[in-house]
Fold this protein.
Amino acid sequence: MLGRVLRIANYEVVAFGSGEEFLSSLAMRVPACVILDVHMPGLSGFDAAAKLRCVHREVPIVFITASDDATLDNAATTAGGSVLLRKPFPADTLLTEISGALLRRSAAAP
């Protein structure tokens, strides 16, 4: 569903089955923005974010989760996320957060 929403909004989308697959892909291309589920097979979204931050600090991260655990908000911020969205969330909310993350990245670029 997320990929479809993003493609309709004219974003190029590449999806991965795990955090490890995503991290392996960084040798070939660096994404403009990343959406990481907190609970993924293998590495958690937070673990994948930590490894991403070691090599690409500038890439915005939007975290998503189905959990209502309030401690995840702080964990997402600590992990470098711009926001933590709780499923189900409106498509417009996702698009607004991604657009904002990309604008902040552009504004911070030298």
Remarks:
- The helical segments are 2-8, 19-25, 45-55, 71-78, 91-108.
- The radius of gyration is 13 Å.
- The chain has one domain: 2-98.
